[in-house]
Amino acid sequence: MNAMNNNDSLDPLRADCLECFGLCCTALPFAKSADFSFDKEGGTPCTNLRADYRCGIHQDLRENGLKGCTVYECFGAGQKVSQVTYNGKDWRSDPATAEEMFAVFPIVQQIQEMLWYLHEALALEVTTSFHKELRVQIEECERLTRESPENILRINLPELRADVNKLLILTSERVRSQIQKKKSPKKMRRSDFIGANLKGADLAGADLRGALLIAADLRGADMRVTDLIGADLRDADLRGADLTGCIFLTQVQVNAAKGDSSTKLPSYLKIPAHWVE
Ligand code: SF4
């Protein structure tokens, strides 16, 4: 059972752009591609970013070739760095902090994302035997994101990620074994499925961590109870696919894919508006 949809502790892990100094639109680079209609260097404000840190074309991003902006998730790092780390002092009124703030933001974003997955693991009944370890790791990640900018820049992210991953992998094994009781849980031999024909495939209980599923044909695929952490689902065709009970799947991954009202998603995710328009 997944209690994610009733989990208030996840609210701070959702982007609150009204409390952010346009950090993703400034700190991060992007390159002209199918997702972005122009190049932008990291640390440079996007030309569409208004003086009040709102996006000037927010309603028309897809029409303007900026699909990439619609599928980015900061997991609440924007408001945390703006309002907690820098105490509400923005980089335009205090330009001396700009460079440091833009370096702090992606670090906090990665830890906030780890927090999201840890909370998801904690909400599952099958992880009861290691809830204590999950809570300790959540407290540690939370503490790190509340450090000073200098200390945040010194965080050893690979080490932290390795500690978090141990718990997430254990969670994945416990969850997937529920659907694979009679056979060992599926471990996909390959992770590159770019453009692959997986129409109607039986992927139930599969480990698809970090899989490249870009533009894969997954129509009607059985993807129940799969681990999709970090899987790249850009333009993957999920029409008719069943993803109920999936873990570590986020709304931005879903938003980047194609689907329709026949796609079955985990209960805590919504069918994107552009799937049914
Ligand atoms: S187009 Fe809008 S959302 Fe995208 S980077 Fe620029 S200001 Fe931000």
What does this structure look like?
With 277 residues, the protein is mostly helical. The chain folds into two domains: 4-28 and 72-176, no CATH class; 181-277, E3 ubiquitin-protein ligase SopA (Pectate Lyase C-like, 3 Solenoid), CATH 2.160.20.80. The protein is built from nine helices and no strands. It has helices spanning 24-27, 67-70, 77-85, 98-122, 131-145, 149-153, 157-177, 251-256, 273-276. The longest helix is centred in the middle third of the chain and has 25 residues, at 98-122. It is globular and about 55 Å long. The model has no long low-confidence stretch (mean pLDDT 92).
Task: Compute the CA-based radius of gyration.
Answer: 19 Å
Reading the helices and strands in chain order gives HHHHHHHHH
Largest beta-sheet details: none
- How many extended strands? 0
Q: What is bound: which ligands?
A: iron/sulfur cluster
Distance N to C terminus = 31 Å
Number of domains: 2
Secondary-structure blueprint of this entry?
Blueprint: H1 24-27, H2 67-70, H3 77-85, H4 98-122, H5 131-145, H6 149-153, H7 157-177, H8 251-256, H9 273-276
Bound molecules: iron/sulfur cluster.
Quick synopsis:
This protein has helices spanning 24-27, 67-70, 77-85, 98-122, 131-145, 149-153, 157-177, 251-256, 273-276. By secondary structure, it is an all-alpha fold. Helix 3 packs across helix 4 (98-122) and helix 5 runs antiparallel to helix 7 (157-177).
